[in-house]
Fold Site-specific recombinase XerD.
Amino acid sequence: MGKLTKRAVDAHTPPGKGQAFLWDGEIRGFGVRVVPSGLKTFVVQYRNVEGRTRRMTIGRYGVMTVEQARDQAKVKLGAVAGGADPAAENASLREAITVTEVCDWYLAEAEAGRILGRRHRPIKTSTLAMDRSRIETHIKPLLGRRQVRALKLGDVEAMQSDIASGRTAKPRGVGRGGATTGGAGVAARTVSTLQSLFAHAVRLDVITSNPAVGVRKRAGKKKERRLSVAEIKRLGDAMRVAERNDEHPVALAGVRLMLLTGFRISEVQGMRRDWLHADQGYVHFPDTKSDGQVRAIGLSAADLAASQPARKNCPYVFPSDVGDGHFTATKSCLARLCARADIAGVTPHTLRHTFGSVAGDLGFSELTIAALLGHAARGVTQGYVHIDEALKLAATRTCEEIASLLSASDGGDLP
């Protein structure tokens, strides 16, 4: 075998099982390992002063080039010639690594796009922001100083209990972020984040095992709040009063569109004009929480979105008051409307759940409702501009039913 090159590594085919090696012809002990999944990693293999064969990973091919790996191999093998044992030293470092160090490694690698998440794609910015929040708010304060190798399953479950009881809760700070609260749902999601980042660290040889495997996550309280027919009517009354009292028209339109479509608040506020196909009754989201989707919308919703005033050099359906970004104050408008209508316990997710519940009341199946809400794992809402006519009918009937309730007065007097 001659000198290891990119062409040679690319041509090195994965084995049916086990692992296969391709060794460099110039530097003895330097090579690349490939496993059945196609993952290729650079390695060095040598005998230490005790005569024991050692093999250690240098880095992953694709993240590291052949020449970069060659330079690292020279350093490692040079150290071996001087009597060192780099593999043993790496093992010692892995054993001493703390939870904070693993968290920082994960955030840096994910930020650089070197860690693949769902569908083998780089982790989304929104997901990474949530992971960072859980790490800085809950994981580091409770477990950050602990060495990963000494961490027990009970320690992770104790962290979960502390989060659920509110030990890491904090009041609202300066800026847009809300208060940091506890609860079973927050605790369980934080454990999921910890399990995931540890799994990435094991796979990429940063730590030797995942101490969070097997943790029993707490069951969060399912969000089942929906608006009743009377509450939808009262919300419609509140919208009309608010409109007369100079409530922000973009905020009002955003609240109405969430209720008429079941879209997430981030999908409504961040909707771009070129995603909206009002004449064909759909919105093409290139990237959502559940990946790219085409979502059907009813006539009233399509007309509402299409009628929003455009602003020069701003691509959004709901533009911000200043700059070229999108509107961000829809949630606060919803809170004011609900306070005026004397409706308690309403969040943007409540409007989404209400849309799904109304669709259920109209007799549509769970599969259809899942597709309307963008929950479907596959099907006509994922990646296709053509939408099944039955799905269009479901979106239209649900949308128009809610629009009718919003326009029908509850009969009560609102301030």
The radius of gyration is 27 Å. The chain has 15 helices and seven strands.
